[in-house]
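User: Could you check the structure of this?
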Amino acid sequence: MPRDGTINRERILDAAQHLVIENGFAATSLDQVLTAAGTSKGAFFHHFDSKLDLGRALTERYAAADVAQLRWALEQVADVEDPAERVVAFVRCFEEAAEEIMSAQSSCLYVAVLTEQQLVGNGTTDLVTRAIEAWREEIARLLEAAAQDRGLDLGDTDALADHVFVTFEGAFLLCRSTGSPAHMRAQLGVLRRLLGAALGVRAA
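Assistant: Sure, the predicted structure tokens are below.
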């Protein structure tokens, strides 16, 4: 293990993320995290001051990965010349990665974080807000470019951008409630076709 303990810290965060997504933050005990991570309390407190500190670090890491995934998709479609087709291609990136997304997690950590008053109180949820705003800003930019290029009035592009983000969250809920991960791909496919129709993209 590296002398800075990076591997052990990541193992703790990995274990905590799985448990918090599955059970919620309050229902996840420190002992459960330690058992799942195969580490000790001494090792835990070397990296984290408290369970709340763990919650913040967990959210910070998750939000950073979430925004990185957004940037990845934007890079994938950067060379698509038609702005409207770029919007559709952006959604298709996630549609094609749906199985990978669902194999990595059964739900979204944001839901678990936002329902915990103690995490709201210590500012952890601000990390979630900033990530969501990053998604809104980038998707709205894609939509505005498409609307301008095709002479369309899409109305409130920020709200429409939020709807794209909300589709992910709703799909997680649907997958979780039905026990079928297939809903993620299905819902993203519906979103892609609706956006394609609204933007006049053929065979979207």
